[in-house]
């Protein structure tokens, strides 16, 4: 079975279960991009546009991400993009511990199918989730994105080794020239990891 089919099966399973936020959402926002990608991005949660279209990163944050990917010579066909939460929280409020606990097993199933060489967490929520080894109770004590962006970490979640490189969230940096430059630099590290060369 190919990865594409593997993801379709996971998505079908996910559609069939009850989950927090499902009732108030219009659509499941499962993921997009290449099922065979070597780089996977993980954002926080769908917003209004994502909820309406059932696709991650299609609103303003998505436009920013597309622009950033273009800058480093990539497009959506080269990567896979998902979120910590798969249904939109009302008014885009922050995810609760209970929601993260209920939704992230599906994110881990996506990673299991795709087996990306590098997972890039976008912003604080996704970064803290991975650094906490998937243990929601330990998320609060993790360091934030400002300190950790562009640094490679091996994290172990459910016995699976994941190479994590935290990145600034595209929505957070778009009006900040300096942080856009940092994002581009961090992506060079991501690409070097994928090509298994070291920069230093
Ligand atoms: N922000 C995210 O973190 N994810 C989306 O899908 C859209 C905006």
Secondary-structure-derived class: alpha/beta
Number of helices: 8
Q: State the total count of DSSP E strands.
A: 6
- CATH topology category name: Uracil-DNA Glycosylase, subunit E
By CATH, the architecture is named 3-Layer(aba) Sandwich
Bound molecules: uracil
Main sheet overview: 4 strands, mixed
**Whole-number total of structural domains:** 1
Name the shape in a single word.
globular
CATH homologous superfamily label: Uracil-DNA glycosylase-like domain
Rg, alpha carbons = 16 Å
CATH class, named Alpha Beta
Q: Name the average pLDDT.
A: 96
What is the CA-CA span between the terminal residues?
38 Å
**Content of β-strand:** 5-15%
* Poorly predicted spans: none
Major sheet strand order: 1-3-2-4
Outline of this structure?
It contains eight helices and six strands; from the N terminus they run αββααβαβααββαα. With 200 residues, the protein is α/β, with parallel strands linked by helices.
